[in-house]
Amino acid sequence: xxxxxxxxxxxxxxxxxxxxxxxxxxxxxxxxxxxxxxxxxxxxxxxxxxxxxxxxxxxxxxxxxxxxxxxxxxxxxxxxxxxxxxxxxxxxxxxxxxxxxxxxxxxxxxxxxxxxxxxxxxxxxxxxxxxxxxxxxxxxxxxxxxxxxxxxxxxxxxxxxxxxxxxxxxxxxxxxxxxxxxxxxxxxxxxxxxxxxxxxxxxxxxxxxxxxxxxxxxxxxxxxxxxxxxxxxxxxxxxxxxxxxxxxxxxxxxxxxxxxxxxxxxxxxxxxxxxxxxxxxxxxxxxxxxxxxxxxxxxxxxxxxxxxxxxxxxxxxxxxxxxxxxxxxxxxxxxxxxxxxxxxxxxxxxxxxxxxxxxxxxxxxxxxxxxxxxxxxxxxxxxxxxxxxxxxxxxxxxxxxxxxxxxxxxxxxxxxxxxxxxxxxxxxxxxxxxxxxxxxxxxxxxxxxxxxxxxxxxxxxxxxxxxxxxxxxxxxxxxxxxxxxxxxxxxxxxxxxxxxxxxxxxxxxxxxxxxxxxxxx
Length: 521
Hints:
Layout: H1 7-29, H2 35-52, E1 58-63, H3 68-76, E2 81-85, H4 88-91, H5 101-112, E3 116-121, H6 142-155, E4 162-165, H7 182-199, E5 204-207, H8 223-232, E6 241-244, H9 268-277, E7 285-287, H10 307-324, E8 328-336, H11 359-368, E9 386-390, E10 396-398, E11 419-426, E12 434-441, E13 449-452, E14 455-456, E15 470-477, E16 485-492, E17 510-519
Parallel strand pairs: 1-2, 1-8, 2-3, 3-4, 4-5, 5-6, 6-7, 7-8
Antiparallel strand pairs: 9-17, 10-17, 11-16, 12-15, 12-17, 13-14, 13-16
Helix pairs in contact: 1-2, 6-7, 7-8, 10-11
C-alpha cells in the first residue's frame, strides 16, 4: 500500500493517540480532579478526535488499456488511484502458464505516476469454465480461481493496494449467463479473500460492485436483495470494503426517486443501511465505477446525456458524496480510455473519439483541484541501478511457429507475431553508460533487431544453434538514448531467406526473457 493508510486507519490511529494523551493527563489529574472531570475529559478527547480527523476521500479512475499517455492524463486530473482489471484469461490463458508482461508494466507505470493501484480479478479463461462464449463466468473449480488470485497477490505484494473480487455478479451476463446466485458468489468471494490474504496479508479485499437494477429474474437480481442474501450466506467475513456502482442511467445524481428503468444515484444509501444492519458499520464503501454516457448503445438511448450534462452530473455526484456520505472513502470515475466507434463503454470515457479530453475531464479537474492524496511520481526518488523491462518468468515468443515446450505460445496469440515493445521508466538516466541484458533462445537468423526509443542497438541479435538453450546477450546503451520518464524497447523478428525453406517465406522464431538495464555494467 506504499506508505498510505485508509481513512478508517487514520481514525483508529487518532483514537489511540488521544487515549494515550488521556492516560497521561489522567495520571496527573487523579489527585486534583473529580471522577466526573476525568469522564468529561475522556469524552472531549474522543469526540474531538473523530470530529477533527475525517477520512480523506480518495479519487480514482478506471482504465481499460492504460498506457503512458493515459497514466499521465490521470495524474494531471489529480486522480490518486487507478482501478484496473487484470483479466484472468490474459494472465493465465493456459492453466499454469502465466503471462505477466502486461500487468508488470501497469504496476510499474502506476508507481511512476504515484497512483495507488486497485486490481479487479475476473474474466475467466476458456479452460476454467464449461460456459462458452461468455464475458465472465464463475470457474468450475474454486481452487482454480484461488490459485490465480493468490499468485497475483504474491507477485505484487506491497505494490497493489486492494483487489476487487469479480464484477457485478448480480447480472447473468457477468455470471456465465446463469441466474445470479448470491450464495455461489459468496463462495467465490471467500476463495478470493483467502487467496489474497495468503498472497499479501496487507492488501484489502473489495466485494464486487453490484449493478443497480430493479429486475428480479433470471437475467438480473436487485442489488439490495443480492447484498442481503450475501450477508445471509456469511459474506461479511470475507471482505474489507464493499464495492459499489451507483449508476443512475441518465438521471441527475440529485434525483430523489428511482423509476422502473433508472435507479436513483442515492440508492447507494440503501446498500449502506444493509451493511449497518449486518454489523458492518465500520467497513467503508468504495465506489469503483461511476459515470454517465454521451454515446450509449442504440438499445439504451434513454440513458444518453449531453457532454455538458456529463460534466455537471459527475461534479454534482462528487458533491453529494463529499457532503452526505462520509462512509464512502473512494470515488472512481468510469472510465479513462480512448473510445472507438461502437464501443459500448466509450461514451462514459473522459476522452472523445479523437482521444481529446471531453468537458467532463476539465470539470473534474477543477472540482478536485488540490484535494488528491497523490504523492507525486516515483521519478522523484533515487534511480535504481537496475531497471527491469521484462521479468525472468515472463517469456515472449516471436515468429510464426507453434511448437511444444520449452517454446512459449506466440506473443499475444498472434500468428505471426512480428514485434514486441516493452515500456519502462527511468527517473534520471544520468551521464554514465548503461548495459542492456537479455536472455534469448534459438536466435538463428541474421537481422533480428533491437531498438531503444526508435534507435537501433547494433549489432543485431547474434545467431545461435538449435539447442533450445538460453544465452545472455549484452548491449551497451549510451545514456543519450534514454530519457527521464517513459522509454520503450522493441524487438523485431525477420523473415528467413527463401533458399533455406521448401515453401513460402517464414519468420525466424526466437524467444526472450529477463530483460533489464544495468547502470555502468
